[in-house]
Amino acid sequence: MSPKPVFAGKDIVSVRDLSREGIDHILDVAETMEPLAKSGSDMLRGKIMATLFFEASTRTRLSFESAMSRLGGTSLGFSETKGTSVEKGENLADTVRVVENYADVLIVRHPLEGAARMAAEFSKIPVINAGSGAEEHPTQALLDLYTIRKARGSIDGTSVGLIGDLRYGRTVHSLAYALSQYKVNLFLISPEILRMRREVLEEVSNRVHVKESTSLRELLPELDVIYMTRIQKERFADLAEYEKVKGSYRLTAQELSKARKDSIVMHPLPRVDEVAPDVDNTKHAKYFEQVWYGLVLRMGVLALVLGAA
Amino acid sequence: MSRSSKELYVKKIKNGTVIDHISAGHALDVLKILGIDGREGHTVSVAMNVLSEKQSKKDIVKVESRELAPGEVDKIALIAPGATINIIRDYEVAEKTRVKLPDVIKGIIRCANPSCVSNAGEPVEPRFTVERTDPLKMRCYYCARIMEKQDVLKQFYA
Question: Is any Cβ of chain B less than 8 angstroms from the Cβ of A196?
Answer without folding.
Answer: no
